């Protein structure tokens, strides 16, 4: 009986270690994605960040920073439809601090530039 409990306890510890390792890997992926945006490696940033949005953002637990960086990566990579979808989701959120507000403002500016270029293209057609 003691051996069974010890084995169970060891499995629990391994699970905690595995969970911590998985969380560290996830955090590294997020920070690598943010860094890729800063380095203007938008395609790489999209690859890192887009798959994380469903996992790290929800209506009940919004992640404005992740949405903003994902939107920047998408528009930087010229992915207009995904950008518009992410932008719509971002606009439904309320920034919690000045940093988040600054990110939302930056994405707003990118949206404005996109709309101006679309209008300009339509005028030229």
From TrEMBL:
<protein>
    <recommendedName>
        <fullName>HEAT repeat domain-containing protein</fullName>
    </recommendedName>
</protein>
């Amino acid at each position: 009986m003691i051996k069974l409990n010890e084995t169970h306890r060891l499995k629990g510890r391994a699970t905690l270690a595995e969970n911590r390792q998985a969380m560290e890997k996830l955090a590294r992926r997020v920070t690598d994605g943010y860094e890729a945006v800063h380095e203007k490696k938008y395609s790489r940033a999209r690859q890192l960040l887009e798959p994380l949005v469903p996992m790290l953002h929800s209506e009940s637990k919004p992640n404005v920073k992740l949405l903003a960086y994902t939107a920047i990566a998408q528009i930087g990579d010229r992915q207009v439809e995904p950008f518009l979808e992410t932008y719509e989701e971002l606009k439904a959120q309320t920034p919690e601090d000045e940093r988040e507000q600054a990110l939302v403002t930056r994405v707003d500016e990118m949206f404005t530039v996109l709309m101006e270029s679309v209008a300009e293209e339509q005028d030229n057609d």
